[in-house]
Amino acid sequence: MTPEDDTLPLGETSEGQSGKSVLIITYYWPPAGGPGVQRWLKFVKYLPDYGIHPIVYIPENPSYPILDQTLLDEIPKEVTILKQPITEPYKLAEFLSKKSSQTISSGVIPKEKKQSLMQQLMLYVRGNYFIPDARKAWVKPSVNYLSEFIQKEHIDIVITTGPPHSLHLIGLQLKAQLGIRWIADFRDPWTTIGYHKKLKLSASAAQEHERMERQVLTTADHIIVTSENTKKEFVTKSEQPVTVITNGYDYRQLQDLNKDTNFSLSHIGSLLSERNPKVLWKVLGELINAHEDFKKEFVLILVGVVSDDVLNVIHQFIPKKNIDIVGYVNHSEAMTYQRKSQLLLLIEIDSEDTKAIIPGKLFEYMVAETPIISVGPKDSDVERIIKSTNTGRYFYYDAEAELKDYLLSCFKAFQNSSLTTNPIGLQQFSRKALTKKLAELI
């Protein structure tokens, strides 16, 4: 397959000037929804401003768990897109159990005691027979196709981004065959991310994951990560240079929106089974029971996929009339909820393994002119960013009294029309500034 006809000649920027071409290998691309697609969509948007022409290689027939057709409008017209077919087991798994397949592929893994026999089987097969992940069958055909393209077009630099981490194996093999410069971008860690432990790995499968991870980390010419904690982990596993380039926000001119008339606390994004701070739901329930005005004004808004385990705990404490379950919305609608809400909620699993996880929505939260309430593990990257930018408050899972006091103070500020935020130092997280940092590595 050749590049699309309506793209510019390779190596030419949007201004018509000759520039460097870089091949970007990614699984997630519009119309995929969710946070995974945003990072490289925005890098591709701004790379031409720094004299770099991006060539994007994606699957022709991917199995995306979430779709957002509006993101198609954000693909720059000048970008070169390459596509090749992919064979994915999730499509086959849907014949056995569509609900279980879609649940697991979207990252919502039920607690072990509540997993059905089919879900347990799917997790075991996924972890032990599809190493490193379910897109492994795309590696060989991609290497065959891209090796010819790279030589024909004289491409010197390849970037792979994962998860899925099987895409790093494409970069690994291309470097071995062609000697090209290879940058590996890790949007999440590999063997230390939370869901990795839920894959029911055999000892040999776990060793194979670690072997692959070590090979990628020690062979890539440069490694990019999204958090300081991931960098700390990777520098113990590799002597290759590691650079932190976080996710960020993209400036766009938005119409003025009035804030919600009720005291809204909104969570936008997936709430996985263990992303479930019982302490927060308990505090909110107690405030509803103790304060009639709070009960009348408060609403918990859940935008996105929510695990049944989380909903069951929430319903133990918070009346249904104080909950608005919206479900999945496209990115544009999600940004509207961010800006209309009185408070924004960010939750991470209370685990050592999640300290390095920085949800992409954090950066959009920070520019939404809405205070953030975040609950997560101690010494996380999210805690550091929220505190350094003065965009909200961060709480640990045992901070019951502090949570209650802060929520009450926010409610009083809401009643007085003085609930605001005064952020500092946000420019460093703009997508254009982050792309400049990437361009300097290329």
Automatic annotation (TrEMBL):
User: Is Transferase among this UniProt entry's keywords?
Assistant: yes
Q: Which residues form the Glycosyltransferase subfamily 4-like N-terminal domain?
A: 124-250
A single GO BP term for this record reads: lipopolysaccharide biosynthetic process
> What GO MF terms are annotated?
glycosyltransferase activity
State the UniProt keywords alphabetically.
Transferase
The source's domain of life comes to: Bacteria
Note the Gene3D superfamilies from the entry: Glycogen Phosphorylase B (3.40.50.2000)
- Per its UniProt record, what InterPro entries does this chain match? Glyco_trans_4-like_N
- Note the Pfam families from the entry: Glyco_transf_4
Q: Which PANTHER family match?
A: GLYCOSYLTRANSFERASE WBBK-RELATED
Q: What is this protein called?
A: Glycosyl transferase family 4
**Classification lineage:** Bacteria, Pseudomonadati, Bacteroidota, Flavobacteriia, Flavobacteriales
